């Protein structure tokens, strides 16, 4: 029954490769052409069964998510995705599982023209999927965490908290809906990230929860910030599921949405909104950066006691963190 | 006791970075400058505790090996190592283990000027270390598996079989010697690979055993090859440990040496030997490529019945394979 690594690679992962791929899978390494005037962006993100996703999740969703979480990191840098490698550790080699996993992986890759150029499959006690994605960025540009200035508006894309609620539904084996879909197949904001590179002053993807991730922009930029709870964009599906109050909590703390949090200078506000509208991506202004150290939450304009360490990885057994 | 991922990254893995690193660890991705006229080479290799190394191996050796096995893949392409990312999955966060691991990792990286530019640490049931290394190669060059022609000489660097014997000694908790050292701290042939790029016609690193790895050159190049058992370079330490007969078997089948197998056109034989000698690397001609399909082993000139599938990953529980 078991097939070995080489057959496995040939059967499921070797495909026609893409732009800039001089040599793909099949040698000791891949040979890639970085166009002149472009800088390389490298990101890596690992998903572990039972930690980042339920062990029994549909392998096609595992494949899709493993790529999407990395696409989201590239989006947060403003980069265009180009190539990826896959390090896949599995307890066993089951053709049906592998075929579904590869299908999901390539769906996510194909949505953004990413070529799989290398990989390593190994045996281990648990499913561990590490994807490294390489992207391209015009030299001396890029959306860093450190560029936010006092006065900048703070925006988020889409709606927040859906994926965290979706995960709880999946864990309860509840019926599928748009919340579970957001956990299974997160849409990285790849086009938005590239389009606002040069417009937004700072960016991060929301993988650990808005409060925790925005905190990183605040610290890296050396600014303060205030966000208003009532402005947090939540979906009707989330409010239906959790109620208004809990929905806001999901929105503040829930990871796995892979929306972007972007800061925008006032002078570029109109341009930013126009670009997002042109892409059909909803963006919501939830607050602004200021000079008062720290990140504050207000509710109807009054400061609310709030603190969250986010989902930090080794602090407790069942929390997850993505870089 | 437990420290969280962010402290962990800061404490052990953040260091001054290297050439071409516009932005290292600490944002959503690393920004890297590929010099014009250079192509990028990407390799990835995963090491799993209990599969690729004994679970109780000194963490400094685990760190060192995890980088070395990737350096070896770059060497086999003729590339110059530049940057790496680390995906580290651990059952727990133990400062002493992490400090030793990071030290070993940086020893290997520093030997070849490699900067760690990103990573992801996650919790899992087993130690899984995936390193992706990025290297540089002058455009339109590179040591591929597919360039061997009939008539080319077949060379290996160093001595073979030592690391496999060393692993068996480590598993028996025997005294340390030069065989165990070769398993713990394999020396990737990074300088040799770069120096013979343009001289050798094909190359591969020996990670799964000479016979299995040379077979890949034979298949990729569409040639045949014959190698002579008595010519296989074995160390005195290996012969002492295993005897002459077993030493040759270790040399044919043992993985983990991370020597290079190179094929060299007759017209470049002298130049090849000179370049290797200039680097102080022993190279041994063990046979030649020909027109007769398949890889044959001779002993004193007579063909020996021999076949090996190498260490293929999902075929049995306790074998290991590296790409």
Could you characterize what this model shows?
Two copies of one chain form a homodimer. With 323 residues, chain A is α+β, with helices and mostly antiparallel strands. Chain A has a seven-stranded mixed beta sheet with strand order 8-10-7-11-9-12-13. In chain A, strands 3-6-4-5 form a four-stranded mixed beta sheet. A two-stranded antiparallel ribbon of chain A has the order 1-2. The C terminus of chain A is likely disordered. Chains A and B meet through helix 1, strand 2, strand 3, helix 2 and strand 4 of A and helix 1, strand 2, strand 3, helix 2 and strand 4 of B. Strand 2 of chain A pairs antiparallel with strand 3 of chain B.
> Distance N terminus to C terminus of chain A?
37 Å
CATH topology term of the largest domain in chain A: Phosphoribosyl-aminoimidazole Synthetase, Chain A, domain 2
Low-confidence stretches of chain A: 316-323
CATH classification class of the largest domain in chain A: Alpha Beta
| Topology of chain A as a string of helices (H) and strands (E) | HEEEHEHEEEHHHEHEHEHEEE
Radius of gyration of chain A: 20 Å
Largest interface: A-B, 77 and 77 residues
What order do the strands of the largest sheet of chain A run in, or round the barrel if closed? 8-10-7-11-9-12-13
Using the 3D structure, state the CATH architecture of the largest domain in chain A. Alpha-Beta Complex
Number of strands of chain A: 13
